[in-house]
Amino acid sequence: MQSNDDFQQNTVNEEANSAEESASCVVSEESQTDSQTDSQAVTAETSEATSPTAQKSRRSKLDKAFDIVLWVLVVALILLVLVRLFAFGRITISGKSMTADYYNNEELASYNPELTYHDGDTVRVNKLVSPKRGDVVVFYEQSVNKFKAMFVNTNKTKNKEKYKKLIKRVVALEGDKLWLEPHAGGGYLLVILTADGKTLHEDYYVKNDVKLSIEAFVLRETDALKLGCLENATADEPYVVKEDCFFALGDNRAESNDSRGKLGDVPFDRIYGVVRE
What we know:
Layout: H1 4-49, H2 52-86, E1 88-92, H3 101-104, E2 122-126, E3 136-140, H4 146-149, E4 165-173, E5 177-182, E6 188-193, E7 199-201, E8 206-207, E9 210-211, E10 239-240, E11 245-249, E12 266-267, E13 271-276
Antiparallel strand pairs: 1-2, 2-13, 3-4, 3-13, 4-11, 5-6, 5-10, 6-7, 8-9, 11-12
């Protein structure tokens, strides 16, 4: 016969087992609930990812990225055009006024023919720098609206002469005094007294680290070309370059219409650009 203590012990064990079964049931139910929640969350995320709203959002991001890339390309193109218009340019030389025969005559000197400029050559110009004595420059023969001139196609315009460009060497700047001295081999040498008191002959030019001989720049008076404004210039009565102008001569002195004649002193505001090697 079961004692009261045994009965009580069994009762306690049954209650414990019942509690364990209840807890196990609760845990099982909670686990099932969590699993269902996770499954529902994954399903919801998948649904959201494939929903029209999500697809539209992705397309919107791609459109924005495309717009940014497009704008970057547009800005880069605009900058390229501005640089081309206002900073640098290319000019094809027409004529022989800068082709000095001296450079190509091996009997006179062994200079490389590339030290001169030939008809048909293409040169690069820098529009952002000011010319120095000895620089080769490209400039408009007449006064023009330089902004408008940048957009004029000289091959199609009826008024080609208005936008005609010349290429010459800057031999003197505003305030410089010029005169001629006889050269032993015939002709004349140009003497330049600068505004700061230096006396120069044209052999001071340096190009590609080669100092050019004074023979390259002898001025000779011919039937076709006179000495012009320099004809009567002396040390006592020199020719003075006008303010805001430069004096330009072609390297081919025998075939260059330049500042000696009708061209005269060239205003700085006509400069298209300085030739850069």
